[in-house]
Amino acid sequence: MSVMKRVSLIFRAKADKALDKLEDPRETLDYSYKQQVEMLTRVRRGVADVATSRKRVELQMNSLQKEINKRDTQARDALSKGREDLARAALQNKGQLQAQYADLETQFAQLQDQEEKLTVASQRLDARVQAFRTRKETIKATYTAAEAQTRINEAFSGISEEMGDIGLAIQRAEDKTAQMQARAGAIDELLASGALEDHVAGGSDYIQAELDKIGAGSDVDSEIARMKGELAAGAPKQLEANANGQGGPSSATDAEPSDAAEERAGDES
Amino acid sequence: MIVRILGEGQFRVGDEAAAKLTALDKELDAAVRNEDEAAFAASLRAAVQEVRAAGTPVGADEFVTADYILPFSDASLAEVRKLLADGTISDSIGLP
After folding, report:
1. How far is Cα B43 from Cα B28, in angstroms, rounded to an integer?
2. CA of B87 vs chain A CAs: smallest distance (Å)
């Protein structure tokens, strides 16, 4: 048998089964209405949950974008310091983060789509529930129990199909949201612990440490150069003094003992 | 004929569209049997588009059951298989 026909029969069988269980037709209407109102609440909560998930993914995309920019800066920094190996590592890292970003982008689009569909479905159900309430009161007021039965069955089966449909839609949205939340939770943890950096190829912590080392190293180098310069400037004088047999210290070293003496004097007072 | 697209509600379609849908339904059935995901997606998309284009939405105050129910427009083969096996529609969902 065909697919579309089979699905419709499955839905109808569910409704028939439910109808068989209920004895008083009027009770059926009230019972169904109560369920519809509950379903409406569930759909609205579903829309809110999907929206929350979507926002969370959006925040993560922002965080990842920052990380991506950081890798970019690191790569430039490394290149300017002549460390192509580090630049490569940073860019490789960036590529992996970008792949993760693209994945989040897809998830974001899916959630957005889900949210829109569920919002429309929620509005449709809302309109149906209002209409059902009116129909329910009309049936109760106008028809005898025997006459009412047919109309109740119609209304009940019609709304049951809608409820089954929307129930599946929410189920899908809930599954999707749960899936996203699990993934989002994992990424949040990674971002928070900095493990994302280690997690992704060799780790940018290593890159940053190396860059910092180069930074610190070049500071030391320039310090050494400065000192050498100073010493070179002071050296001839010192040699000259020694040659004169005075053995006197340079003015720079001269200042030190007196500073120490002053400090001691300060301590005593 | 009344056709429902899951997630999108019911539509009333004329005879011409109904004939097209019946043909597409056969394709869907074959795709499910052959486990042909691509053919399934293509037939589903065609059927959904036919209903959206040719159908008029059933009013909120009209309580009727559908002759045909189409899966969600982006449903996977596995999802539909589960639906056909009656493993998806919970007795508790909207039904007493």
Report:
1. 6
2. 10
Is B25 in CB contact (< 8 Å) with chain A? yes
Residue in chain B lying closest to A30 (CA): B96
Smallest CA–CA distance from A31 into chain B, residue? B96
Q: Using an 8 Å CB-CB cutoff, list chain B residues near A161.
A: 4, 10, 65-66, 69
Write down the ipTM of this complex: 0.90
Q: What is the pLDDT of residues A161-174, one digit of tens each?
A: 999 999 999 988 88
Q: Answer for the pair B54, B36: CB distance below 8 angstroms, yes or no.
A: no
Select from A182, A187, A183 the least CA-distant residue to A199.
A187
Are the beta carbons of A159 and A32 closer than 8 angstroms?
Answer: yes
| Full-model pTM | 0.73
Contacts of B50 (CB under 8 A, 6+ apart): B13, B17, B20, B21, B24
Number of helices and strands in chain A (H, E): 7, 0
